[in-house]
Design brief:
Elements (H helix, E strand, L loop, with lengths): L1 H27 L3 H25 L4 H32 L20 H15 L6 E3 L3 H10 L14 H16 L3 E3 L12 H20 L3 H18 L1
Antiparallel strand pairs: 1-2
Helix pairs in contact: 1-2, 1-3, 2-3, 2-5, 3-4, 3-5, 3-6, 4-6, 5-8, 7-8
């Protein structure tokens, strides 16, 4: 029984990894909506593997390393593949799987900066003692759900998400935010922290705003929620 209990968080982490692999498969099939669905599902498992580890008090080095490897696939490679295939379709008006592979894939190759910088961000996270209660740089799940939301957006309302120049800018800016030395707050409340603290007011404001934006704009709200998170973190740093 102890062995089963000890491995429950790892099993949830492997479910996250499965979602990431499934997302990549669907991306190569040109089914970007299903690819996005699996990233969101992976984010769900990623939240609960850490929560279950804390509740069961089974934190260990294996789980930490396994979590980073799963995150690399689900929140690094998979969103990179979604953005690559989306940009390729916009650029060439044909699915990548049906294309004649000739020449260098520019500008869609810029989407590969996401997994490259995600690898740096995740490796640094494991050795950076400053990130126990907060983050330095944009967390990989935040970038992943930002990208995963794009194929699900109503482009009639938000046409910039089918503007190749806008996507080129995103494919460069988002990976740089992963490794930027910018302190960002976590949604986890530290033990002994006052619920009325400025940081908790920002957290509550972010959560309430996210609920409202999701209700009004649905998936299109997700990129703006991530941007709001960055803005509130910067305000918290300044104040």
């Amino acid at each position: 029984m102890n062995a089963i209990k000890r491995n429950i968080p790892n099993i949830i982490t492997l479910a996250n990894l499965f979602c990431g692999l499934s997302s990549i498969i669907f991306a190569f099939q040109g089914n970007l909506k299903m690819a996005s669905f699996f990233i969101f599902t992976g984010a769900f498992f990623d939240f609960f593997d850490g929560l279950s580890a804390r509740l069961l008090k089974v934190n260990g080095e294996l789980g930490k390393q396994l979590d980073s490897m799963a995150d690399m696939v689900t929140f690094g490679v998979a969103p990179g593949m979604i953005l690559f295939h989306f940009m390729y379709y916009l650029h060439h008006n044909i699915l990548f799987k049906n294309a004649t592979l000739e020449g260098f894939f520019f500008p869609e190759v810029l989407a590969l900066l996401i997994p490259i910088f995600s690898a740096v961000r995740l490796a640094n996270f494991n050795i950076d003692t400053r990130q126990t209660t907060s983050f330095i740089g944009l967390p990989t799940p935040a970038l992943a759900i930002f990208v995963a939301a794009i194929p699900l957006i109503n482009f009639d309302l938000f046409p910039m998400f089918v503007d190749l120049r806008f996507l080129i800018a995103l494919s460069v800016m988002l990976p740089l935010l992963l490794v930027a030395e910018i302190p960002l707050f976590s949604l986890k409340i530290s033990q002994g922290e006052s619920l009325s603290s400025r940081l908790n007011i920002f957290r509550i404001g972010l959560i309430l705003s996210a609920i409202l934006l999701l209700f009004v704009f649905q998936f299109a709200a997700i990129p703006f929620i991530v941007i709001l998170y960055l803005i509130l973190s910067l305000l918290n740093n300044i104040l």
